[in-house]
Write the structure tokens for this entry.
Amino acid sequence: MPKEKVNRVVVVGTGAVGCSYAYSLINQGVVEELVLIDVNEAKAEGEAMDLNHGIPFAPSPIQVWSGSYEDCGNADLVVITAGLAQKPGETRLQLVEKNTKIFKEIVNNIMASGFNGIFLVATNPVDILTYVTWKESGLPKERVIGSGTVLDTARLRFALGQYFNVDTRNVHAAIIGEHGDTELPVWSRTMIGMEHIDTILKYKEDVKKESLDDIFIHVRDAAYQIIERKGATYYGIGMSLVRITKAILNNENSILTVSAYLNGEYGQEDVYIGVPAKINRSGIQEVIEIRLNDQEQEQFQRSVSILKETMKPII
């Protein structure tokens, strides 16, 4: 039987992140319809034209066009990458007041279309802007998701794969907390292949705890290093957004460290923050509450506190 329903994704913001995401979506054949929206309509039109010229080489058919907020009415997923970018030396949290104002207008325009799908937020500070999107949209918390620490976790897995000389896909690790300076690695649950990292530290003399600490610092500060060198980060987050999109549209029940709303999990309430969550067609099907050791619990609490303090002026 012919497929009756097609998957439509709308990308709001055709800057470097939005276009990297769109380009990755097309190359991986994830959706059937892709709509680009930008306050600069000519920019969105140009990006759609450019992307369309690559479709003969895409793995599956896709329609791409520059559209308007009305196109969100039939969308399964709206991905927001619009907003002011992080400048060299600027923290993600310093962006909060600038981008909150922009976001409220965007979300209200989207909801006016009759949108009833899932929001995926990528703009920084992502945890706070995901909270703003949830509040402004009125949608259930399960259907408003932030990219969270998916990229940070990918960076950690890549770095550990390099250090241990194993395929990064065999590194099972996570970074949780704020997507920013107070994030933390969950070393107590890190596995390299089938072995716990603590076991490896015990029997491999060339593996040092100090080296792991250095790896995390480089991961945490990766955005600053990239921004200093090339002005912005976009390939990694673009592919991270595609990974979340596939988990949603394919109803995968995949566990990813997205920015999710906590309602008692980890002893926290009324905050969006990066934690492992099961993702499927309904959005966040479940927040996975992993056991943290005392140090990790304390670090996570600090991350929550920093986010809540920063949110006060805008809530």
In short: The mean pLDDT is 94. The domain at 8-146 is CATH 3.40.50.720 (Rossmann fold). The CA atoms of residues 117 and 197 lie 40 Å apart.
